[in-house]
Each structure stands twice: as structure tokens, then as C-alpha cells.
Amino acid sequence: MGRRLKFSAMAGTPGATRLVSAEVGPDRRAAFVLQAVQPALLGLMDGSVSTLAPIFAAAGLTGRPSSAFFVGLAASLGAALSMGLSEALSDDGAVTGRGGPIRRGTITGVATGIGGMLHTLPFLIPNLAVALDLAYAVVACELLLIAFIRHRLMGGRLLNTIVQVVIGGALVFAIGVGLGRIGAA
Q1: How far apart are CA 123 and CA 67, in angstroms?
Q2: Burial (CB count within 10 angstroms: exposed 0-12, middle 13-18, buried 19+), residue 27
Q3: Per the domain annotation, does 46 fall within a domain?
Q4: What residues contact residue 115 under an 8 Å CB cut-off, 6+ apart?
Q5: Does residue 11 lie within any of the structural domains?
């Protein structure tokens, strides 16, 4: 039978959580955060943010949702492979305690692909205005979800986490929209 894990508030640290079980203690939680949560957040954030500019620039330049979709698909898959390999090759985990490189690389790569594809999928809709509106909403949800996961599993104040994640995403988003408009003019 598998271990049963529960989340509860960590005393003295607002917003942070810890795993509570007879078999799983704070050291196990720290390893989980370092070896799984951190690579997943790294991938989600990179996939969400790094693909914004190319996708929205392509939408603005071409006026064709299908073009934005294929740019997003290429950017997402390329970023997933790049980030997965980078994380896997960065260290073997022996010195840092970050865990096995294949597991970390896989987690980071898959999360990067997911982060990039979520706001790419709306561009399968043939109407550009509808696709853009849906993609804007998806981007907002992605960034808020990343901020919440970061807050919930890594601690810190929720508002600070939201501001940090959303500002980073907004800057890259503005670059993509701005360049798309300049190039289309």
C-alpha cells in the first residue's frame, strides 16, 4: 500500500506547506521541492513566458491564427527539448542534492512544453480575434497558477509571488505584441 500524504500549514511560515506522514518528514519534503517542484516550476515558467513573444508577434505579423499556432508549436517543442537537456546536463545531483539528471530533465522538459502549448492551443480557432482573446485569458491563468503553486509549495507571500511572476510574463508579452504591431504596420 502506498504512503498517504497530507498537506498542512507549517508553523510560523505563512503560506508554506509541509508533508505530514509517519513515513515522510521535512527532509523528504525538501528533496521533493528541490528535485520535482522546482524543475517543474522552472519549466512551466519558461514555457509560458519564452513562447509568448514569438506567438503574439506571429499573430500580429501574419493576422493568421494558424501561423501563430505553428510558431507556438515550434517554440514550445524547441524550448521543451532545450530546457530538458539543459536541466539534465547541468549537474548529476551528487553535489547539489538536486536528484537524478534524467528525472529532473524530463520534469523540466515536459513542464516547459505544457507551459508553451497551453496558450498556443487557442490559435487552432480560425477567428484571430477569438483566438487572441482566449489566449490572453489562458496566459493570465497560467501565470496565476504558477504563482499559486510557487506560493503553496515554496512559501512566500502570495501577493509578492503573483507580482513577480505576472510582471515577468507581462514584460515578455508586451515585447511580442509590440513587435507584432510594429512589423505589421
Answers
A1: 8
A2: exposed
A3: yes
A4: 43, 44, 45, 46, 47, 48, 49, 51, 76, 142, 146
A5: no
Q: What's this model's pTM, rounded to 2 decimal places?
A: 0.78
**Among 109, 107, 139, CA closest to 121:** 139
Q: For the chain, what is the radius of gyration of the CA atoms?
A: 18
Distance CA 115, CA 102 (A): 20
Please give the single-letter amino acid code of residue 177. Answer: V
Q: Is residue 181, in this structure, part of any structural domain at all?
A: no
Q: If DSSP codes are grouped into helix, strand and coil, which group holds residue 99?
A: coil
Domain interval for residue 66: 23-171
- pLDDT given for residue 6 in this prediction: 43
- Could you tell me where the DSSP H helices lie in the chain? 26-32, 38-50, 52-62, 65-90, 101-118, 128-154, 158-184
Contact predicate 8/17, CB 8 Å: yes
Grid coordinates representing 52 are: 509568448
For residue 151, tell me if it sits in a domain: yes
CA neighbor of 167 nearest in space, from 151, 134, 144, 135: 144
pLDDT tens by residue, 74-132: 999 999 999 999 999 988 888 788 889 999 999 999 999 999 999 999 999 999 999 99
Give the total number of structural domains in the chain.
1
